[in-house]
């Protein structure tokens, strides 16, 4: 029972982050399932089954708050679904001992990307309102969908920064459109996993726990996307993903690093994370503080007081 409550809380927290950033639900929840000992294909299948419900709730919530561009959803979501089905098929065919470090490596790279992306820059908006072309969205969706299924996450970490970097959409519409289109990706990936694995290794109780937490958080996340400092949230999530997946990777049979190496890596990752978080918090506080007008010096009287 304790494990189910933990999964529901993780699903809730992950959806709050995903709804605010347009990424990290799959990366966060897959990281937890791998840490619990689930094989990579079953972990990704579990997460994607839960995401069918969470992404539907999230997409509807974002639509309710006016955060969705449906043209972008279709142009990136359909190729994403194709890529996700292919990725699910590939991951299901890999041996567990090969798949676990591969998946952790992908998640680790995504964690680095998220951390660096949100620590170093804010979204640009110099070309706001210009249309996004299909020749940009289709390959992006195909790649992000494939990565999402093989790594247990990747749709948001790839799609959201790419759309933000284009400068052609408001950040809230980028997040809403990515979350809404992820429903197609989750549905397609789940179909691929079920065809390849049947229900082998997939714990439906875990699916329901993750789903319950995510559905509860979805409406709140769609609202918070307007007010939460996304850079602080992004760096926080990136650090957690880095720390957890570096542990999984260092303990895998492929590397099997000695204890001293593991401790050094953990300390380094933690130090980088804390420094990045401190920098972003300080930058946010500095930029959000109202400018204080200089206090004028008191005027001197023209007439001097006689001695």
Automatic annotation (TrEMBL):
Compartments, as annotated in UniProt: Cell membrane; Membrane
Annotated transmembrane regions: 72-92, 98-116, 175-197, 204-225, 231-250, 262-281
Keywords, alphabetical: Cell membrane, Membrane, Transmembrane, Transmembrane helix
Keyword set includes Nucleus: no
Main location (coarse class): membrane
GO cellular component: plasma membrane
The organism's place on the tree of life at top rank: Bacteria
Pfam short name (any one): TauE
Membrane topology: Multi-pass membrane protein
PANTHER family for the chain: MEMBRANE TRANSPORTER PROTEIN MJ0441-RELATED, MEMBRANE TRANSPORTER PROTEIN YTNM-RELATED
Family: Belongs to the 4-toluene sulfonate uptake permease (TSUP) (TC 2.A.102) family.
Protein name (Swiss-Prot/TrEMBL): Probable membrane transporter protein
């Amino acid at each position: 029972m304790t494990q189910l409550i933990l999964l529901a809380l993780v699903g809730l927290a992950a959806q709050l982050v995903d709804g605010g950033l347009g990424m990290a639900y799959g990366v966060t929840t897959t990281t937890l399932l791998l840490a619990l000992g689930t094989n990579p294909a079953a972990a990704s299948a579990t997460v994607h089954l839960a995401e069918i419900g969470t992404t539907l709730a999230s997409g509807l919530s974002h639509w309710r708050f006016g955060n969705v561009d449906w043209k972008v959803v279709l142009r990136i979501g359909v190729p994403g679904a194709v890529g996700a089905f292919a990725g699910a098929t590939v991951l299901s065919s890999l041996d567990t001992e090969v798949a676990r470090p591969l998946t952790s490596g992908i998640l680790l790279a995504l964690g680095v990307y998220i951390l660096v992306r949100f620590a170093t820059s804010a979204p640009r908006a110099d070309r706001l309102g210009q249309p996004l072309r299909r020749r940009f969205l289709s390959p992006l969706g195909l790649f992000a969908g494939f990565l999402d299924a093989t790594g247990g996450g990747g749709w948001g970490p790839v799609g959201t920064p790419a759309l933000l970097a284009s400068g052609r959409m408001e950040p809230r519409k980028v997040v809403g459109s990515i979350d809404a289109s992820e429903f197609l990706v989750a549905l397609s990936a789940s179909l691929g996993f079920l065809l390849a694995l049947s229900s082998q290794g997939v714990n439906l109780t875990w699916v329901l726990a993750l789903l319950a937490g995510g559905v509860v958080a979805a409406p709140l996340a769609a609202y918070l996307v307007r007010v939460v400092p996304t850079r602080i949230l992004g760096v926080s999530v990136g650090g957690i993903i880095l720390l957890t997946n570096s542990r999984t990777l260092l303990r895998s049979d492929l590397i099997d690093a000695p204890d001293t190496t593991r401790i050094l890596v953990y300390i380094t990752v933690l130090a980088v994370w804390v420094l990045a978080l401190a920098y972003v918090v300080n930058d946010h506080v500095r930029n959000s503080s109202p400018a204080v007008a200089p206090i004028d010096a008191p005027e001197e009287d023209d007439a001097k007081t006689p001695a």
